[in-house]
Amino acid sequence: MDSEQPAKPAGEPSEGLLSGRFSGRSDFEQLVRDALARAAREGWREIILCDATFEDWPLREREVVASLQAWSSSGRRLTMLATRYDEVMRHQPRFVAWRKTWGHILDCRVCRTASALDFPSVILSPAWFMHRLDPSQSRGICGDGREYWVKLREMLDEHIRNSSPGFPASTLGL
């Protein structure tokens, strides 16, 4: 698409996204919506979504799936990390349908040995991060600070190394 905005260079702030602390489920859900909408507008090349189960993420919403659809294009990569995906499959049908179509750009990983209570809840892109420090109360921090971003990236890379493929796009039977 000729009118597509180029991706922000790593380290350049993503305008319009909250930077600082957030608290509460509605703030968290709005951050997810805003981040994915911004990813589509700015053409973020890579996104990592991490949560123990994604059960309280707004992935079932039409607006969120529309943002993911708008974001989907050649050269993009979405990595999801979870301890299990049963809540996603049960309660996020729009996302599951989108995942089936776009499985070639989506890498779903499962960390079976990780504790769900200690598992991070994060959105990470080259331009911005959101980290729920207390998932039960949906409290956390977000922004574009490079030092914090690097720590999150290292933590997520470690989880990726200790994960295996999970949540297949389709189940083929013989």
Note down, in words, how this protein is organized.
With 174 residues, the protein is α+β, with helices and mostly antiparallel strands. The chain is 34% helix and 21% strand. It is built from 5 helices and 8 strands. The chain has helices spanning 25-42, 62-71, 86-91, 93-101, 146-161; strands at residues 20-23, 46-50, 77-82, 106-110, 121-124, 129-134, 139-143, 164-165. Strands 1-7-6-5-2-3-4-8 form an 8-stranded mixed beta sheet, with helices on both faces. Helix 2 links the parallel strand 2 (46-50) and strand 3 (77-82). Helix 1 (25-42) runs parallel beside helix 2. The radius of gyration is 15 Å and the shape is globular. 34% of the residues are buried. Residues 1-14 have low confidence and may be disordered.
Sheet/helix structural class? alpha+beta
Compressed to H and E, one letter per element, the order equals EHEHEHHEEEEHE
In whole angstroms, the N-to-C terminal distance is: 40 Å
Query: What's the total count of β strands?
Result: 8
DSSP summary: helix tally: 5
Low-pLDDT residue intervals, each spanning 5 or more residues: 1-14
Instruction: Give the helix proportion (percent range).
Output: 25-40%
The best one-word shape is globular
Mean pLDDT: 88
Largest sheet: 8 strands, mixed
Strand order of the largest sheet: 1-7-6-5-2-3-4-8
Tell me the radius of gyration: 15 Å
Strand portion? 15-25%
